[in-house]
Write a structure and sequence with these properties.
By secondary structure, this protein is an all-alpha fold. 75% of the residues lie in helices and 0% in strands.
């Protein structure tokens, strides 16, 4: 893997052994095999990580699109309900207005409270409490 530190290969060698050249070759071959396996494992791990990241990004994009779609659907339903409500209210107000025009107008005087009335009421309340 580029940029990754190389694995330090070390081995125990017997300098007095007559088979030192053969054992050196075997150790070097084992070292190369281990390095190749480590490199393959690192590449596989990096590939999985890249694949997972891409899949994760796709899932996030799908979630965002789904959320937007549901929001639009909810908005459409809400607008439809409001339109129906507006139509029903408009009809109700029209019929109420027609009925009000048909009835004779009755003007009943509205009572108006003055400051003097409030003072008398306040005094009455205090006297009734005691």
């Amino acid at each position: 893997m580029p940029g990754a530190p190389k694995r330090a290969s070390f081995c125990l060698r017997d300098e007095h052994s007559s088979d030192s050249d053969d054992s050196d070759d075997e150790v070097d071959a084992l070292d190369l095999q281990l390095e190749a396996e480590e490199s393959a494992a690192a590449n596989a791990h990096a590939s999985k990580r890249r694949s997972w990241t891409a899949k994760n990004q796709q899932v996030e994009e799908f979630d965002m699109a789904s959320d937007l779609m549901y929001e639009l659907m909810e908005e459409e339903v809400m607008l439809s309900l409001l339109s129906e409500l507006e139509s029903a209210c408009r009809d109700e107000f029209k019929s109420t207005a027609r009925e009000a025009k048909a009835r004779p107008q009755e003007h009943s005087p509205q009572p108006v409270a003055t400051a003097a009335m409030f003072q008398r009421f306040s005094v009455q309340q205090r006297l009734s409490v005691h």
